[in-house]
Amino acid sequence: SDIRVAVVGAGMMGADHISRLTNRVAGAHVSAIVEPDAGRADAALEHAPGARAFASIEEAIAADAVDAVLIATPGQFHEPVILPALDAKLPMLCEKPLTQEPESSRRVLEAEQKLDRPHIQVGFMRRFDREYGQLRDLVTSKDAGELVMLRCVHRNPSVPDAYHQDMLITDSVVHEFDVAPWLAGSDVKSVEVKYPRRNSLAPERLKEPILVIIELENGVLVDVEMNVSIQFGYQVATEAVFEKGTARIGQPNGLQRWQDERIFQKEHASFTTRFADAYDNEVQRWVDAVRRGDLIDGPNAWDGYKVALACEAGVTALNSGGIVEIPHEERPAFYA
Ligand code: ISE
Question: How far apart are CA 106 and CA 112, in angstroms?
Answer without folding.
Answer: 10
